[in-house]
């Protein structure tokens, strides 16, 4: 937890409009405020560590802040983007649960945290692709950064997108650490039973032709999981039918 960083984030919110009006050559600065409220009663999934979980009830709310910066491309191919995330608890009751903030060793919900959720180097590959190295969001068919909490979770590694032609795009990603949405640090990938996962890698492609589009993806997590997914869509024109 870094309280000085947290309050620095909050103080920046008062001057966000001034930053947004900077000349385009300095990049783009975006401020997001997210208020989340959870009220739930239920039983957790059984695990090896806790095969017979008891039911619990909790209520909690938190304010999340995202300060997202997108840099211009130096020499038209190289840039650095970053995001500062901060979360502060508004209130909670019932049994503490790590939905918005972590549960501390004393059994109480953490008060706040701040962290650099994104910080990556981006490089254009001409007009046909881009690669990113570092901490980043991910959104694909089989792996997604969640956005229904105070701040999203992010991954650390490398990713790339490549436009092969007007219809076909491919993408790849490799991650070996992640920052959960309720924590201020990047952690090793683990299973529900706290078993180490070395990495998560994926390869996918998107194809679009007229009203048809197809997205296929393969995800591999060493010694843990392999997944395949595909979606086919057809956009039905409604012009003249209504």
Automatic annotation (TrEMBL):
GO cellular component annotations of the record: membrane
Recorded superkingdom: Bacteria
Xref: PANTHER family: CHITOPORIN (PTHR34596)
GO MF entries: porin activity
Protein name: Outer membrane porin, OprD domain protein
Alphabetical list of Pfam families matching this protein: OprD (PF03573)
UniProt keyword annotations, A-Z: Signal, Transport
Lineage summary: Bacteria, Pseudomonadati, Pseudomonadota, Gammaproteobacteria, Moraxellales
InterPro entries: OM_porin_bac, Porin_dom_sf
The family this protein is said to belong to: Belongs to the outer membrane porin (Opr) (TC 1.B.25) family.
Regions annotated as coiled coil: none
Gene3D superfamilies for this protein: Porin
